[in-house]
Write a structure and sequence with these properties.
The complex is a heterodimer of chains A (about 350) and B (about 525). Chain A has a domain at about 100-335: MetI-like (MetI-like fold, Orthogonal Bundle). With about 350 residues, chain A is mainly alpha-helical. The mean pLDDT of chain A is about 85. In chain A, helix 5 packs antiparallel against helix 6 (about 130-145) and helix 11 packs antiparallel against helix 14 (about 305-335). Chain A has helices at about 1-30, 35-40, 50-60, 65-75, 90-125, 130-145, 150-160, 185-195, 195-235, 235-245, 250-280, 280-285, 290-300, 305-335. The two termini of chain B are about 35 Å apart. In chain B, a hairpin with a 5-residue loop joins strand 4 and strand 5 (about 100-105). Chain B has about 525 residues and is α+β, with helices and mostly antiparallel strands. In chain B, helix 11 (about 305-315) runs antiparallel to helix 13 (about 360-370), helix 12 runs antiparallel to helix 14 and helix 17 (about 460-470) packs antiparallel against helix 18. In chain B, the strands form 6 sheets. In chain B, strands 11, 12, 13, 14, 17 and 18 form a 6-stranded antiparallel beta sheet that branches. A 4-stranded mixed beta sheet of chain B has the order 1-10-9-8. Chain B has helices at about 5-15, 20-30, 50-60, 120-130, 135-140, 170-175, 185-190, 200-205, 250-255, 270-275, 305-315, 320-325, 360-370, 385-400, 415-420, 440-445, 460-470, 475-495; strands spanning about 30-35, 65-70, 75-85, 90-95, 100-105, 150-155, 155-160, 210-215, 220-225, 240-245, 265, 280-285, 290-295, 330-335, 375-380, 405-410, 425-435, 495-510, 510-515, 515, 530. The chains are: A mainly alpha (about 350), B alpha+beta (about 525). Chains A and B meet through helix 2, helix 3, helix 7 and helix 13 of A and strand 1, helix 5, strand 10, helix 9 and helix 15 of B.
C-alpha cells in the first residue's frame, strides 16, 4: 500500500509543471481574446470612461499583464480564484457548489454507459459479423452522430411534453420538493444519508434523462473498445487452453477473457470521464443543470476572466486525478502492470 | 374555540390525503417564472448586475415613489406621467419646482421589523450619489449628484432639493436604483474599505418591499416569500415567487404549455405565434414604447460622416421587408412617418419620415461623391442574431443596389460593446432602451456626449443646445416646441435610422392576470394574480 501512496505522490508532483503551464496559458489566452470585460459590465445609460476605469480597477485589469499574472499566481497559491462578475460570487464558492452537480451527473451517466456498453461489446465480440454485432454497431453510430442537445431535446419532448412520464427537465430536484440537508453536495448521497427517500426519488428521477442523454453519447467508444479488445483476447492461447480444459464458457469469457480485455477499456473510460465532465455543457444547458461547464461557458461569453481560468484549472486537476485513478485501476485489473 | 364533530371529521379527511389540499393551495399561490438569464446580485446598483436582478430588487425593496400604470391596447403598461407613493404617503413639490418634501408612511417597516425612518432614506440616497455604483450615473440625469441635496426634516419627513427645476428629478427617484435600504442593518455590515456595505448587500437584502428573499442561488434560482406586513401598496396575490433560470428557450416554452411554469418573458419571438394558439397559454404582447431598434452610422468616421451618404442609405433600406423578415411585424414600426418639416407630436420615439426610394438613394449617392459605391461592414451582436441576421442580409442586398458593398460582421456581446464604446464600428444595429421615456432624456442619452449609448457618436451643436434647454423647461408648450425641433433635426441629419419598437411577449398560463409592462422590462410580481 505504501508503494501505491508513494506512486500517487510522485505522480502528483510530476503533474505540477503541467498544471502550472495550464494556469499561465489560460491566463494569457483570456487576455488575448477580443472583448473588454470592463466595458461589457459597465452598463447604464451614462456609463462613461470613469465607470469603465473603475470596473477595470476592481477587476485588477488596470495593471500591466505580467503584474496581473504574478498577482493571479499569488492568489491561486493562497486558494483564491477571484470573483465572478456574472454571478457576483467568489469563483471558488461557485465551483464548489456546482462541481457536485456535474460530478453526480457524469458518474451516473458513466455508470449507465458502462452497464450498457460492456455487455453490448462482449455480445458483439462473441459473434463478430452477426446480426447482433451489426445491431450494436448501429446503436453506437446513432449515439455518436446524434448531438447531445438533439437527443436531450428529443427525450424531453417525448417523455416530458408528450407522455408526461418524466418530471419537468429543470435542474437537479423538483423545484417544489424539499432539498435534503447538504452534506456532500451529491443529492442522491445527501438524501440517502438523511433518509429522505422522497427527495432521493425526486433527485433520481430528475437525473435519469440527462444521464441517459450523456450515456448515449459515450456508449460508442466504450462498446467499440470492449468489442475490439475482447476480440483480440478471445483468439489468444490461454482462452483456447481454458476451453480445452473444459472450463465453462461463462467462466472463460467473464473471468479470463473480460479481465484481460478490460485494460484498454479502463484507459478509454478515464478519457471519456474527463471529456464528459467538461464537454457536457450542452446537456447542462438543455436540462438547466447547475453544473460547472455551463457556468464556464456563460463566463466565457461575457469575457469574465476569473471563472474561466478557475474552470480550466479545475478540469486540469481533475484530469490529473482521473489518470492517477486509472493507473491504480490498471494494477487491480492486471497485477503485472505497475506504472511508476 | 369550540371544536365540533364536523370540524374533527373535516380535519381527519384533510389529514388522510397528506399534503393534498395544502400543497395544491400553495401551488396556486406560488408563481413560477422561468427565464434564460440569471439574477447575479441582490443589489441592483452593482456594476454588472443583470436585468433579472433589477426585477427582483423592485419586489424586495421599496422606493419613496413609483410609477403608476395604465391600459394600453389589451394590456397594462407603466405610466411615467403618474407618480404614486410607495414609502412616501405624499410628496409636496415647491412652487419653483426645486424642493420635494416626502412624508413617509408612519407604519412602514423593514423586513426585520424596525420602522422606516427619514434617517434610512437619507443614508440610502447618500449611498446612491456617493458610492461607486450604477445608481450615481443614472440619477445624475435628474440633477441628483451630492449628499447635501438630501435632508432629514424629522423622523418621518425627508427633503430633497435640486438647483434648477429638472423635469426628470422626481421620475428618477421612481427608478429601481433609488431603493430605500435599512441603514442600521447595512451599517453593521459596512467596513472601512466598504463604507456602503456593497459587498454584503450583493448577497443579502435589507429592504421593506412586498417580498423578502427566501433563498438566493446565483445562476440557478431565487425564491421570494410575501412580506405580509407590507405597507407600500395593496398586498400582492402570490405568497411565493420562484424565479428560475432555464437556459433553453424550448424547455421554457414546454414548461408553460404543460402548466408547470406560469410565466416567461424571454421566449423566442418565432415561437410566440404558435404558442398563442395553444389553449392553455396566454400571450401578452406589448410594444416596448421606451425602446427602439436602430441602424446606426459612425458620424465621426469616413465614410458615414457624410450626411448625403447617410440619407442615401436611409432611402435605400427596404423597411417593410426588414420589419417582416426580422421581426415578423411583432412590434411598432418607427419608419414610414407621414411628415416632413415638423413631427406631428413631441413624443419620441415616433415613426420617422423614412421611405424606400431607390431613385432618390442613387441620386444621393452621386451627390455624396460616391458614384462608384464603397465598401463597409455591418455589425451586430450574437445575442440578437435571431432578428439581426435576417436584417443584415436584407441590408446587404438592398445596399448592393446603390453600390454599397456590405460585409456582415457578427460579434460576441462583450466584443461588440468594446468596439462600440471605442467608436470603431462604421455601421451597426442595436436595440436600446430608456427607463424614463421622455424626449429630452432620449436625446440627451442617445444623441449627445461620449458615452456608449451615443451609438452614432453624433455631435450636433443645435441638439446639445436644445436638450440643455428642454431639461429645465417648465412650460409644456415651450417644451413641446423644443422636442419637435430635436426630432426634426434627427430626421434631417440621420445619424441613425430608427426601425421599430419590438414587442415584449410575456407568455403565461391562462390563469395569470394583471401582467404589466414595466420600464425595467422585468416582471413586477406585485401586479400579478391568479384567477
Amino acid at each position: 500500500m505504501r508503494g501505491v501512496a508513494g506512486r500517487a505522490g510522485r505522480r502528483f508532483v510530476s503533474s505540477l509543471p503541467a498544471l502550472f503551464g495550464v494556469l499561465v496559458f489560460t491566463f494569457l489566452l483570456m487576455r488575448v481574446l477580443p472583448g473588454d470585460p470592463a466595458i461589457f459590465f459597465a452598463s447604464g445609460p451614462n456609463a462613461g470612461q470613469a465607470e469603465i476605469e473603475d470596473i477595470r480597477r476592481r477587476m485588477g485589469l488596470d495593471k500591466p499583464v505580467p503584474e496581473q499574472l504574478l498577482l493571479y499566481l499569488r492568489d491561486v497559491a493562497t486558494g483564491n480564484l477571484g470573483r465572478s462578475m456574472t454571478t457576483g460570487q467568489p469563483v471558488l464558492n461557485d465551483l464548489r457548489n456546482r462541481l457536485p452537480a456535474s460530478l453526480e451527473l457524469t458518474f451516473c451517466a458513466l455508470l449507465i454507459a458502462l452497464v450498457l456498453a460492456v455487455p453490448l461489446g462482449i455480445l458483439a465480440a462473441l459473434r463478430p459479423g452477426s446480426a447482433v454485432d451489426h445491431g450494436v454497431r448501429l446503436i453506437c453510430t446513432l449515439g455518436v452522430c446524434v448531438p447531445t442537445f438533439v437527443s436531450g431535446l428529443l427525450l424531453i419532448y417525448v417523455l416530458y411534453y408528450l407522455l408526461g412520464i418524466a418530471p419537468d427537465p429543470t435542474g437537479r430536484i423538483d423545484i417544489f420538493a424539499a432539498q435534503p440537508p447538504e452534506v456532500t453536495g451529491f443529492l442522491l448521497v445527501d438524501a440517502a444519508l438523511a433518509g429522505e427517500w422522497e427527495a432521493w426519488w425526486a433527485a433520481a428521477s430528475q437525473l435519469v434523462l440527462p444521464a441517459c442523454t450523456m450515456a448515449l453519447f459515450v456508449l460508442a467508444p466504450l462498446a467499440r473498445m470492449t468489442r475490439a479488445s475482447m476480440l483480440a483476447v478471445l483468439t489468444s492461447d490461454f482462452i483456447r487452453t481454458g476451453e480445452a480444459l473444459g472450463l465453462s464458457r461463462r467462466r472463460v469469457i467473464l473471468v479470463y477473457a473480460l479481465r484481460n480485455a478490460l485494460l484498454p477499456v479502463i484507459t478509454i473510460m478515464g478519457i471519456v470521464f474527463s471529456t464528459m465532465l467538461g464537454a457536457n455543457v450542452l446537456v447542462e444547458k438543455v436540462f438547466s443543470w447547475p453544473g460547472v461547464a455551463s457556468y464556464a461557458l456563460d463566463a466565457l461569453l461575457s469575457s469574465d476572466y476569473a471563472p474561466v481560468q478557475g474552470f480550466v484549472l479545475l478540469m486540469a486537476s481533475i484530469f490529473v486525478l482521473v489518470n492517477l485513478v486509472v493507473d491504480l485501476l490498471y494494477g487491480i485489473a492486471d497485477p503485472r502492470v505497475s506504472i511508476g | 374555540m369550540r371544536i365540533g364533530r364536523r370540524e374533527i371529521l373535516a380535519g381527519a379527511a384533510a389529514m388522510a390525503v397528506p399534503g393534498g389540499p395544502a400543497l395544491a393551495q400553495s401551488r396556486a399561490e406560488t408563481l413560477r417564472q422561468v427565464t434564460g438569464n440569471t439574477v447575479n446580485t441582490l443589489d441592483p446598483t452593482m456594476p454588472g448586475s443583470t436585468r433579472e436582478a433589477f426585477g427582483i430588487s423592485v419586489n424586495v425593496y421599496d422606493r419613496l415613489v413609483g410609477f403608476g400604470r395604465k391600459q394600453m391596447g389589451a394590456g397594462w403598461v407603466f405610466d411615467p406621467d403618474v407618480i404614486r407613493g410607495e414609502l412616501a404617503e405624499r410628496v409636496e413639490t415647491s412652487a419653483d419646482g426645486t424642493t420635494f418634501t416626502f412624508h413617509l408612511k408612519r407604519d412602514a417597516k423593514f423586513h426585520d421589523g424596525t420602522p422606516v425612518t427619514a434617517e434610512d432614506v437619507k443614508w440610502s440616497f447618500d449611498r446612491h450619489v456617493t458610492a461607486r455604483s450604477l445608481a450615481a450615473v443614472q440619477i445624475q440625469t435628474g440633477s441628483w449628484t451630492k449628499a447635501e441635496q438630501f435632508r432629514v426634516v424629522d423622523a418621518h419627513t425627508f427633503e430633497a432639493k435640486v438647483e434648477r427645476p429638472d423635469r426628470l428629478a422626481l421620475p428618477n427617484l421612481c427608478t429601481l436604483y433609488c431603493m430605500i435600504i435599512n441603514s442600521k442593518v447595512a451599517k453593521s455590515h459596512a467596513t472601512s474599505d466598504d463604507p456602503w456595505a456593497q459587498a454584503w448587500l450583493k448577497d443579502n437584502a435589507a429592504g421593506s418591499g412586498a417580498y423578502r428573499i427566501e433563498s438566493f442561488k446565483p445562476g440557478e434560482q431565487v425564491i421570494l416569500r410575501r412580506n405580509d406586513d407590507w405597507k407600500g401598496g395593496p398586498l400582492p396575490f402570490f405568497r411565493r415567487i420562484i424565479n428560475q433560470t432555464i437556459p433553453e428557450a424550448a424547455t421554457r416554452a414546454n414548461l408553460i404549455e404543460r402548466g408547470d411554469a406560469d410565466l416567461s418573458i424571454d421566449l423566442q419571438a418565432s415561437d410566440v405565434p404558435s404558442l398563442a394558439q395553444r389553449p392553455r397559454v396566454k400571450v401578452v404582447s406589448t410594444p416596448q414604447f421606451n425602446a427602439f431598434t436602430m441602424v446606426a452610422f459612425n458620424t465621426r468616421m469616413a465614410p458615414f460622416d457624410n450626411v448625403k451618404l447617410r440619407q442615401a442609405v436611409a432611402a435605400a433600406l427596404p423597411y417593410q421587408d426588414i420589419f417582416k423578415a426580422a421581426l415578423f411585424e411583432r412590434g411598432a414600426a418607427l419608419f414610414g412617418g407621414d411628415w416632413s418639416e415638423t413631427p406631428p407630436t413631441a413624443r419620441f420615439p415616433q415613426p420617422m419620415p423614412m421611405k424606400t426610394n431607390l431613385e432618390r438613394a442613387k441620386a444621393l449617392m452621386a451627390e455624396a461623391g460616391y458614384p462608384n459605391g464603397l465598401d463597409t461592414t455591418f455589425s451586430f451582436n450574437v445575442g440578437s442574431a435571431a432578428t439581426s441576421e435576417p436584417m443584415a442580409a436584407l441590408v446587404k442586398e438592398a445596399l448592393a443596389r446603390i453600390g454599397i458593398r456590405v460585409e456582415i460582421q457578427k460579434l460576441p456581446d462583450a466584443q461588440i460593446s468594446t468596439l462600440v464604446t471605442e467608436k470603431k464600428l462604421p455601421f451597426l444595429t442595436e436595440t436600446s432602451i430608456a427607463w424614463l421615456p421622455s424626449t429630452d432624456y432620449f436625446f440627451r442619452n442617445f444623441f449627445t456626449g461620449e458615452q456608449r449609448w451615443n451609438y452614432s457618436s453624433w455631435n450636433n451643436a443645435e441638439i446639445a443646445d436644445l436638450t440643455a434647454k428642454a431639461r429645465f423647461e417648465r412650460d409644456p408648450a415651450e417644451y413641446e416646441k423644443l422636442c419637435k425641433r430635436m426630432i426634426a433635426v434627427l430626421a434631417e441629419e440621420v445619424p441613425l435610422i430608427l426601425l421599430w419598437q419590438p414587442n415584449q411577449d410575456a407568455v403565461m398560463t391562462q390563469a395569470i392576470d394583471g401582467y404589466t409592462y414595466q420600464y425595467h422590462r422585468q416582471v413586477d410580481y406585485r401586479d400579478l394574480r391568479r384567477v
